[in-house]
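Progress report, Aim 2. The chain analyzed during this reporting quarter is listed below.
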Amino acid sequence: MCQLYIENPLYDYSAASFGKSDEIINLGLERGRLIYPLLKHLSDSLDALYGKPATIRKPLPRADSVLISSYEVRGLYRTDEHFFTKMMDFQTGRYYDVARLARRVRNVFGTRYYQRIQYGIEQQPDGSSRIVFDVKENAPTQAKLGLHYNSFSSISLIANLTTRNMFMPASRSLVTLALSENFRARGEHLQQFGARNRLAVLGALQFETFGFKTYQKFRADGLQRQYFFRGDARVQFSNNQRFALGAGWRFDWVKYKPSILSQFDLKGDNRIHTALLYWHYNTLDASVLSKKGLKIKAEAGYVFRQKPLLTYLENGEPVSDPDSLGINYNNYPHCTLHLEWYKPLGSRTTLVLLQQTGLNFNYKQNILNDFAVGGLTPQFRNQITFAGLQEATFYSPSVAALQAGLRFKASNNLYITALTNGMVHNFVSHRAGLPAPDFVSGHALTLTYNTPIGPIRVSAMYSDQSKKVSTYINLGLAF
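Predicted structure tokens for the chain:
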């Protein structure tokens, strides 16, 4: 046996205290450097006699993670454990940390089958852990009522009925009505299947009617009512609650009926078929007044088999030679992009960015499938929202708009938002004679008060082209 003991005769160990911790540590490091050669010689001698010891490497689990060996889900009545763990992508025998568990719980909570999900971890004798989920399920059928008012669409009572698993497991069916002078109705069925229910088939029907003001060089000069019906069928893949990739077919029927004639009007209807691909991505932290995150909706489609039954009116009289307008209803491709981004700049300030693009290629129509510019709230087909202009102030075959703003939280529920935006348009499938310059800009200052029934927004808008100040009001959540 070999013992090694070195003492510093100049150091008073009896006077050592926590107040001299740095001095003690430095002394230990100094002593270690002095005896290292001796220890190294001793180690080499032992290795020469007995050989080097085998090195056993055992990887450590990630910091703050636990090995889950078993689980229990309490409170299930209408759904089962298989559905819960499948949507959560949860498996035993794996290490989970707090962040990973939170993401998985958000995934299953996003299915809206559950009103509350809580979990706790219990230590097991073998060092692993058992996780216990305590859930409260939503009722399989829910009815909701809401009130919405908008400067454009007027006041409406919104009623919704949603039921889950009525026809098959992992399904959702809903009907939504907006009862007002601008009636709207929508029905949808979603059926999920496959591993973790990543695949889904969706079918939807929608009908609505809106009264539109018509404008000529930014001035209202008429009134028109639009009737719209849509039916679509889609197949989509979704890896989680954040993104979806899909393909489908859409049928649109659009009818125009002038109420107050303007200089140029459209009367009649058209039937439109569209084959489409789409991609949706959403990381917003809230559906209303988001503070951070990104939301993307992108679509590429091909329009075909149009069946127009239309009459073009000029000053109330049918155009004698419609071919002179240069309009035809050939097939054409189109694409759209809607991007929202929110970035917190401090505890009370949020940067807001909105980018919208709509492009029709090889397109030679007038108004019918154009993009309608104006308004602060998206509400109808082919709309491009734009601060400074009212809904459908003008139409264009191609649009690219960028909006930037700062939102300041003045109190718990009161927000002030300053917006400015610019737009270039009519650069793809260019059409002569549009009543708006190729570049348009506008601004808005919005006061928002968040209430239990939805935000109340009051805005003052200004357009650099119309030179007019206008107001815009929206109460509650849109259809």
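Confidence is low (pLDDT under 50) at residues 1-11. Residues 21-50 form the longest helix (30 residues). These observations will guide the mutagenesis work planned for the next reporting period.
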